[in-house]
Amino acid sequence: MAGYICDLLGSGVTRRDVLRLMGRSAVAGLAGLSFGRIAGASVHRPSDMPNIIFILSDNCRWDCMGFMGHPFIKTPGLDRLAKEGVVFENAFNTTSLCSPSRASILTGTYAHTHGVLNNHTPWTGKLPTFMEYLKNAGYDTAFIGKWHMPGRGLPNLPYLDLFVSYTYREGQGSYFNCPLIVNGKPEPSLKPYITEEVTRRAIDFMTKTKTGGSRLNRPFFIYLSHRTAHPPFQAPDDISGMYDKDKVVLPKVVDSWFSRTNGNVYQGIMMGSYEDQYRKYCEDITAMDREIQHLLDVVERLGMTDNTVVIYMSDNGMMWGEHRCHGIKYPYEESIRVPLIVRCPWLVNKPGTSRSQMALNIDIAPTILDLAGIKIPSFMEGRSLVSVIRDANLPWRDAFLLEYWKYYPENLPSYKGVRTNRFKYVEYEKTLGPQIFDLKEDPKEYNNLYGTARGEGMLPELKRLLAELDT
Amino acid sequence: MRKNSRHLLGIFSPVFYVFIVMAGSWALYNVAWRINNDAIHQVIANISGTLLFLSVTFSTFLIYPMVYMRGGSLGERIIASLINPFLWATKECIRLYISFTPLECLYYYLNPLNIWLLFGITAQMGIAEIFCRLWLRAKGKDIRVLSPYAVGTVLISLFLVVLMYAWGQGENVYVLFLKGYRLFFGSGVKI
């Protein structure tokens, strides 16, 4: 508790605020006992409008976490989240590129609907984000971190109480000393490392909401958007180099030079060997994990764990040499599959379990609105995952649309495709031939069935499905 | 005419030798991964990758003095030094045709890596010029080793090489490249 109080006092919160908070936490704890139970869940739902923290990472693979059995990466924060929540083992993005995927998360729609087709396409704002609905419902809202959608500066989002982001380097920002824009005005960093900076600001927002002032005891929503793990990878000094002695086993089709060939140099991975770049990638994730852990600790110390939903996701995965590809844009599993963890104590029957249903980035907006008790707008194409969080065996979607628009100078043609529970079918705009994979028999996607008798037999149904989804 | 052809052949033969190394190592690198033995694959990839990198990036150190020694003029030395990097850059532009239009591929010539390479080659030419002059002087020719043009070329080029990287590890220049792209091509896509 003493450490926590130091944290709070260090962040500008007064001793009086802390004492007031401690009193309120005790009252809230008692009051929570009187709320009704959600079927099957072991924790009472303490409020109709729970606090919600959505943590988004960048390019973090679904398997690059300790609890996923990674050979060396340390992610105790994410491991804890997985242990206390549910892990969606089949979570995907619908467009495997940063800006479109982020716009899909914010609007609950596919890229062809929201219009952010690649990282050069400006954010139009033609669709409202789910944060606007939260604000209208009475939430205090904050977007903190990487916005990364092009346009003239950051958009005007009046429904945000706090909007901390950056436009530096195409909105990618930098790991160290990143110039920030806070509610439209440039502001110096509080911490040199961006991951620590945005976490600190999220904690400040959270604690101020809970410790006094005009926002006292109002529910809050925080969209915490990390730069991690976007290249060029840089970790803080005490983490940098921590995996130097760990053996990296990358796919056998690649080698140490792979980061400098086939255009990969533009992925920001030119310096050092490919293995070293992967180590740095893991270090970045560990650095972010430490901040997630810090955030979870503060939520706990504030006594808000049982009334706060924490969702962790990444905008894309990342290919690390599979199919001799590097990056995020490919339709292969390594780039479209993303980590998704939801900790929601009153919904989760058995913490530490997983869900096999296919969850998508477009499901985040409706899920959050559903958790907040807000009606899901009809334009949203995703579905609320709340019922899946409750019921691991619930029948769910059979297929979703994959779409990608070429993004200069990343050398991959535009494509559309469909992924079902078992198959994947992809059509490219030019140059490359179609692909069909049986993900059950060939999970690594080595055997393209297109052009084979089996593939030809499946083709009409897959084409029909694609046409149906792409309307 | 015949003499002129022989002269050019003599002058540009180093370019051809380096081209053979560059093309060969590129081909080798790109087939090595198909070898079923991982140890052999890694060895071949490392050797061919190193040779490819050296032939594209540092071949000027070899070509420029060789052309100099064979009596090539300043213009011929410069052209000879630029041929292989230009061919490499062209190959990279063609590679992009998998996804983009010919005009977008042409714009790729302006990518920061090519500009970086160009500054690097210019610096190498300056250094090589100084060494050639040193060699000639050792042979008894009355020549100024530290020619102001050569020294100036080295200093300015090296400064630009370092600056391009130091300015945000090259990211800032890359951002300018992308801004230029959007100026000409917009987002490059539409529904």
List keywords for this structure.
A: 471 residues, Alkaline Phosphatase, subunit A, 2 domains, ten-stranded mixed sheet, four-stranded antiparallel sheet, 16 strands, disordered N terminus, B: 191 residues, mainly alpha
Descriptive report:
With 471 residues, chain A is α/β, with parallel strands linked by helices. Chain A has two domains: 2-401, Alkaline Phosphatase, subunit A; 413-471, no CATH class. Chain A is built from twelve helices and 16 strands. Chain A has helices at residues 2-10, 15-32, 76-84, 98-107, 111-114, 130-136, 194-211, 274-301, 333-336, 364-371, 386-390, 453-469, and strands spanning 51-57, 86-92, 140-145, 162-165, 180-182, 185-187, 220-225, 308-314, 319-320, 326-327, 340-343, 353-360, 399-404, 415-420, 423-428, 435-438. In chain A, the strands form three sheets. In chain A, strands 6-5-4-3-7-1-8-11-2-12 form a ten-stranded mixed sheet, sandwiched between helices. A four-stranded antiparallel sheet of chain A has the order 13-14-15-16, with helices on one face. In chain A, helix 6 runs parallel beside helix 10 (364-371). The longest helix of chain A has 28 residues, at 274-301. Chain A is globular and about 65 Å long. Chain A starts with a helix and ends with a helix. Chain B is mostly helical and 191 residues long. Chain B has one domain (2-185). Helices cover 79% and strands 0% of the residues of chain B. Chain B has helices at residues 2-32, 38-57, 60-69, 74-95, 102-107, 112-138, 148-166, 171-185. Chain B is globular and about 70 Å long. Chain B starts with a helix and ends in a 6-residue tail after the last helix.
Q: How many helix segments of chain B?
A: 8
Backbone structural class of chain B:
mainly alpha
Predict the CATH topology of the largest domain in chain A.
Alkaline Phosphatase, subunit A
Give the low-pLDDT segments of chain A.
Answer: 1-42
Query: Which residue ranges of chain B are poorly predicted, with pLDDT under 50 across at least 5 consecutive positions?
Result: none
* Percent in strands of chain A: 15-25%
Residue share in helix of chain A: 25-40%
CATH class of the largest domain in chain A: Alpha Beta
Biggest chain pair interface: A-B, 41 and 40 residues
Based on Cα principal axes, name the global outline of chain B: globular
Name the helicity range of chain B.
over 70%
The chain-level mean pLDDT of chain A equals 88
- Portion of residues in beta strands of chain B equals under 5%
Mean pLDDT of chain B: 92
Q: Largest beta sheet of chain B, briefly?
A: none
Distance between the termini of chain B: 58 Å
Overall radius of gyration of chain B: 20 Å
Form type of chain A: globular
